[in-house]
Every structure is written in C-alpha cells, then in structure tokens.
Specification:
alpha/beta; eight-stranded parallel beta sheet; 11 helices; 8 strands; globular; binds NADP nicotinamide-adenine-dinucleotide phosphate
C-alpha cells in the first residue's frame, strides 16, 4: 500500500503537524522530527526514512554533514507523498561558512534531497570567539546568505543550531532574526536559561539527542518514572522536551523505537516530576560534551 494511503499514519501525521509550533515565518513545524544523523548512506538511510514515513513522521532533520542527504532524497521521492506534507530541515556545515559557501551548500542540499525548497535551513555550529578572531564577521556573512535564501523563497524559515547568547547577539539585530535554535536538550543537559533566552526572542527550540544518545533512557530515575506513568523511558524524555516547549528530534532505526517515539502528546509529567528530571542535569547524564566554544 502506498505510504500516503495508510489511514493511521496519515492521522498521526496530521495530529503532529497541528500540535506543532508556529514559526516567526508563519509556517508550522510538526511536533516531532526524525533525526537522520548516523544513518549510513544508501539502503540503510532509505529504509530508515521509509519506515519513519510509514508510521507517520513527516518532519526530517537533515544536514550536509550527515553525508546521506542523497539517500534521504531517494526515500522522500519514492514515497509518493506530496512535497507540501513534509517539513525538511538542512544545515550549513563548518566547511562552508562564507556567504558564497552557504548559498552553494543550500543549493546542493536541495538538489540532493530532491525537495525543491527547504522548510528550514540552519547554521549547524556558529563560529566561536574561542576559535576564530573574526568569528563575528563569519557568522554575520553566513546569516546574510541565510536571509537572501529566505527572501528568494528557497528556504521557508531560517535559524541556527548550537548558538549561545553571545553568538546570538549580532544575529538578533538583523532585519530577519533567527526563527529557530536547535540545541542539545534532554534531562541530563536541558540548558534551561538558554532555552528561555531563545524563546523570549521568538525562537522555536528543536531538541537534538533528546534521548541523550540512549544513555538517558537507561537511567534508573527515568526508568522508574516511566513505570509510574505506564510509558517507555524514551516517551518520558520526549515529553520532558515537549513540556519545556521543545520539539524533539529522536533518531531511531529499531521499529519499536520508531513507533514509541511518536506517542508523547497524550500524557503529562507533573511539575514535581519535572523537577526530579531537572536534577539529572547535575550528573550530566547523557551529555555529549559538544560545545561551540570548546
Ligand atoms: N544540531 C546538531 O548539532 C545535532 C547534533 C546531534 C544530533 N542532531 C540531530 O538530533 C538527532 C538525534 O540525535 P542522536 O541520534 O544523537 O541521539 P538520540 O536521538 O538521543 O538517540 C538515538 C539513540 O537512541 C536509541 N533510541 C531511539 N529511540 C529509542 C527508544 N524509544 N528506546 C530506547 N532507545 C531508543 C537509538 O537506537 P536505534 O537507532 O537502534 O533505534 C539510538 O541509538 C540526530 O539524528 C540529528 O538529526 C543534531
């Protein structure tokens, strides 16, 4: 059966799209995105993306750096699903951090993904004052290219990833400020003050590694809480992000994981239990230790 004809997947896709946040561009982002990092190019990526679509994902988090956009594109094209049903993100990598490099990288991602336009284009990692003396100019030139791509309609929304307050300062003064900040967000590394800073400035947050690369789902506190709510540990992690106003981007290949990760909208973690989960940040459970300034 063609993917778009599966009624249960269609209903889930509609529910996730309607529940998702509205971006400053006026476009809506579905409430969960499927992470594509770490999927080997070729049949592995094609099958993983197809499996995700079969079960109702329409939002895919891609990047030039992941090296598999051609294979994601094959799966999108073969799905028979209309382009408008998808929400496709890509990101400009560190090796293309100039005005021209960003324009070129965006065109390449669109071509590889075979998707005519991107729903969201992000700066993957900002230039850092601890690494590049001219970091401000680098970030501003890349942002200028992002704004031009947005004005041209090649990308429907623009934003950043892994940006802290310092990196955001200049970009927020732009005529078109960032609409999204994609950050590592899970109970072991929630970065709540940066979330608030970004959200107060009208940015939607996407949460990468929402399961702490599976380390948080193996944590005893999370497992115990999952038992209490009659949910899986992964659903506790995804719901935690959602209650912080964050759209989670879990990656999964295992089919049970793919399915369970779609179901976190219909229960609520109490304020008391959110506090219990916040405490995991003290032990930095599942933290990647990736930081733009280190
Ligand atoms: N912007 C950035 O700098 C940045 C950085 C890192 C990641 N990302 C994005 O975020 C996405 C997700 O991050 P990630 O892959 O690092 O980590 P993650 O989603 O937190 O964890 C993925 C791992 O968790 C396992 N898993 C998935 N669902 C599960 C479940 N329900 N129960 C138990 N285990 C489960 C997966 O196993 P199986 O695959 O075997 O199912 C995989 O080993 C990436 O794919 C990428 O799109 C962005």
């Amino acid at each position: 059966m063609a993917i778009e004809k599966r009624p249960e997947a269609l209903a889930r896709a509609v529910e996730l799209r309607e529940a998702g946040p509205l971006l400053a561009s006026g476009h809506r982002m579905p409430a969960v995105g499927f992470g594509t990092s770490g999927l080997a190019p070729g049949i592995d990526t094609e099958e993983a993306v197809k499996c995700a679509m079969i079960h109702g994902y329409r939002h895919f988090d891609c990047a030039a750096k992941y090296g598999n956009e051609i294979s994601v594109g094959v799966a999108l094209k073969n799905s028979g699903i209309e382009r408008e049903e998808f929400f496709i993100t890509s990101k400009v990598w560190l090796d293309s951090m100039t005005y021209e490099g960003t324009i070129e990288s965006c065109h390449r991602s669109i071509r590889d993904l075979k998707c005519q336009y991107l729903d969201l284009y992000l700066i993957h990692w900002p230039a850092s004052p601890y690494k590049q003396p001219n970091w401000r100019d680098i970030n501003l030139n890349v942002w200028r290219a992002m704004c031009d791509l947005y004005r041209e309609g090649l990308v429907k929304s623009i934003g950043v990833s892994n940006c802290k307050e310092l990196h955001l300062d200049d970009l927020l003064k732009s005529e078109i400020p960032p609409m999204v900040n994609q950050l590592e967000v899970h109970p072991g590394h929630a970065q709540r003050s940066l979330l608030k800073f970004s959200q107060d400035r009208n940015m939607v947050i996407q949460g990468w590694s929402p399961l702490g690369r599976s380390k948080v789902v193996r944590n005893e506190v999370v497992i115990e809480m999952a038992r209490k709510y009659g949910r899986t540990p992964a659903q506790i992690c995804l719901r935690y992000d959602w209650q912080l106003g964050v759209v989670p981007l879990p990656k999964a290949v295992n089919i049970d994981h793919v399915i369970t990760n779609l179901n976190f909208l219909n229960f609520e973690i109490s304020d008391e239990d959110m506090e219990v989960l916040h405490k995991l940040e003290n032990a930095q459970v599942g933290f990647s230790y990736e930081d733009p300034d280190m």
